[in-house]
Amino acid sequence: MPAQRMHERLTFQRRADSVDDYGNTSAAFANQFTEDAELIVPRQGSEAVVQARLQGQQPVIIRLRLNSRTATIQADWRAVSARNAGVIYALTAPPVDREQTRRWLEVPATIGAAA
User: Fold this and answer.
1) If residue 35 lies in a helix (H) or strand (E), which one and from where to where?
2) 104: which strand partners?
3) Burial (CB count <10 Å: 0-12, 13-18, 19+), residue 91
C-alpha cells in the first residue's frame, strides 16, 4: 500500500487514572502518540438506540504502519482526528496484521459509538 493513501492524522489515546486534590480518581483519556493513517469504510453504517434516541454509527478500518508505537495499541483505546477533535473513533478490537507482512496494521473502529 503506497503512503499517499494515508491522508488522515490520528492521535491515539488510552484511559489514564488521575487523582485530584481530594483523593478522588477519575479516568480520562490521555494522548499516547500521533500517526498517519488510512481510513477504509467497509460497509454501511447502522443505528443504535441509546437512551431512547437513535444514534448513527459508522464502522471503519484504520490502517497504520506497523512500528513500536502502533504495536502497543489495545482495544480499549480510542483515536481522535488531529484535524477535527470532534471526530472520535472507538476501537472495537485489537490491531491485526492481515497481510502478515509485518508492515501494516488494521484496527476495526466505529465512529459515533462510546469509546
Assistant:
1) strand 25-40
2) 65
3) buried
Who's near 81: CB < 8 A, 6+ residues apart? 8, 9, 10, 11, 87, 88, 89
Return the C-alpha cell found at 111.
Answer: 465512529
- Which domains does the chain show, CATH number per domain? 3-111 (2.40.10.270)
pTM of the model: 0.80
For 102: left if phi > 0, alpha if psi spans -120 to 50, otherwise beta; the answer is: left
Quote the pLDDT of residue 42. Answer: 67
Q: DSSP assignment of 61-91, as one string? A: EEEEE--TTGGG--TT-EEEESS-TT-EEEE
Q: Report the distance separating Cα 109 and Cα 81, nearest Å.
A: 13
Q: Is residue 51 pLDDT above 60, yes or no?
A: no
- Please, are residues 30 and 17 in contact by the beta-carbon 8 Å criterion? no
Q: Which residue has the cell 508492515?
A: 103
